[in-house]
Design a protein that fits this description.
Elements lengths: L11 H11 L3 E2 L11 H13 L11 H15 L9 E4 L2 H12 L5 E6 L5 H7 L3 E6 L9 H7 L4 E7 L11 H11 L5 E5 L19 H4 L2 E5 L2 H4 L7 E4 L2 H14 L5 H11 L5 H19 L5 E2 L7 E5 L8 H12 L1 E2 L1 E2 L12 E5 L4 H17 L3
Parallel strand pairs: 1-11, 3-4, 3-5, 5-6, 6-7
Antiparallel strand pairs: 2-8, 7-8, 9-10, 10-13, 12-13
The structure holds pyridoxal-5'-phosphate.
């Protein structure tokens, strides 16, 4: 059958996961956490399922959840989004981002994507007839070179997709980054999708900057976030999209033809749970501790750690151990060392080799200890 995505093979990231299982390796490759959801949230979900809410949810999402989302956003970022007209519940960040792309991208439009990037942006743009324009996040630091971006903006640029805190590099956009983006898009018709899935995980002084905090960005942005990383419920497939009324109206119109219903009982349980609780600072501290612990375990080893400012991903360079391509190093670490990690090249549209692997550190301390032990052992014994 003819494919609509000739340049993609399907996600080899999930292949890594399968291979990890096959080889009984510890899987650090995908963003899967080892932690359980809060007990009360689990109880609420099962009681809601037993008793009610097993029918279709409202298309825009359960109102009580939209209210919680809007209230929290205001409480943290000082901007009001109307739960009635500007907040929509979606079936996870990927769907919300794809819907926003469909809402704005037409045949022939260009969409700027920083690279490396989360895997789904480029294919979603192509499925809508758009052309992804990749702007590299360069080393050292994987920061955005705003001058490079300026040069890539053309009259056909319709959309820029940003992601902060960033998967896979762990960078966090600074206030200056957001101001630069605001300056460069001022007076243009360019839309922004701001993927803020890891908004609650930004460490030390590198606090998350949301697009909604910048008036010139808020007026043109779809802000996508998720309760997954905060409550360890990525598998619930819930996310929300905040956008000005006219943009939300179009987003909802399209979502309705893609997915009528988003897990009603889970929305209801989450809304009830969120009322009166706010563990965002706690989870931030928790993952900052995990990052620090994983970093300490690898300190003094031949692995070089790229600083993670946010998210639960750690980039690790193996350049002091071997010059082989990252895919080869990852395969050997998996097969011979018993640890699965994601080669950074998986997050690039053209597979060029890098000296980096990405590790998800959302794991128990015992797992992190065993992973570090195996990695160090592998580095000492593997013959390259
Ligand atoms: C930056 C980013 N955006 C979006 C997603 C998609 O989340 P989901 O698979 O829950 O839809 C992920 C998941 O890893 C992510 O890391």
């Amino acid at each position: 059958m003819q494919t609509k995505l000739p340049e993609t093979q399907g996600s080899s990231l999930w292949d890594m996961r399968e291979m990890a299982m096959e080889h009984q390796a510890i899987d650090m490759s995908v963003g899967v956490t080892e932690f359980s959801l809060p007990a009360r949230l689990g109880e609420l979900a099962s009681s809601v399922i037993r008793n009610q809410y097993n029918n279709y949810a409202p298309v825009a999402g359960c109102m009580s959840l939209r209210e919680q989302v809007a209230a929290r956003y205001f409480n943290r970022y000082g901007k009001r989004y109307s739960p009635v007209t500007e907040v929509t519940i979606s079936a996870g960040p990927i769907q919300a981002i794809s819907t926003a792309i469909t809402a704005v991208v037409n045949e022939g439009d260009e969409v700027i994507i920083f690279e490396p990037s989360y895997l789904t942006y480029g294919p979603a743009v192509r499925l809508n007839g758009g052309t992804p324009v990749h702007v590299p996040l360069k080393e050292p630091g994987f920061r955005v070179e705003w001058e490079d971006l300026r040069k890539m903006i053309t009259t056909r640029t319709r959309l820029i997709i940003i992601n902060t805190p960033h998967n896979p590099t762990g960078i966090v956009f600074s206030r200056e980054d957001m101001l630069q983006l605001q300056r460069l898009t001022a007076g243009t018709g360019i839309y922004i999708i701001s993927d803020e899935t890891y908004e609650c995980l930004s460490y030390d002084q590198d606090k998350h900057q949301s697009a909604g905090q910048f008036e010139g960005l808020a007026s043109r942005s779809f802000i996508v976030s998720s309760p997954g990383p905060v409550y360890h419920i990525n598998g619930w497939g819930l996310a929300w999209c905040l956008a000005p009324e006219a943009m939300t109206a179009e987003f909802r119109k399209i979502q309705e033809y893609q997915i009528v219903n988003v897990a009603y009982p889970l929305q209801q349980a989450l809304a009830e749970y969120m009322e009166g609780e706010d563990s965002r600072d706690e989870i931030n501290e928790f993952y900052q501790g995990k990052r620090n612990y994983f970093n300490r375990l690898l300190k003094g080893s031949p692995y070089i750690l790229h600083p993670t400012q946010g998210s639960y991903f750690q980039l690790v360079s193996f350049s002091a151990i071997s010059q082989v391509p990252d895919t080869e190093f990852a395969l050997r670490l998996l097969r011979e060392g018993g640890v699965a990690a994601a080669p950074l090249s998986l997050f690039m549209h053209k597979k060029k080799s890098t000296p980096y692997l990405r590790f998800c550190f959302a794991k128990k301390n015992e797992t992190l200890e065993e992973v570090a032990r195996r990695m160090i052992d592998f580095a000492a014994k593997a013959a390259f």
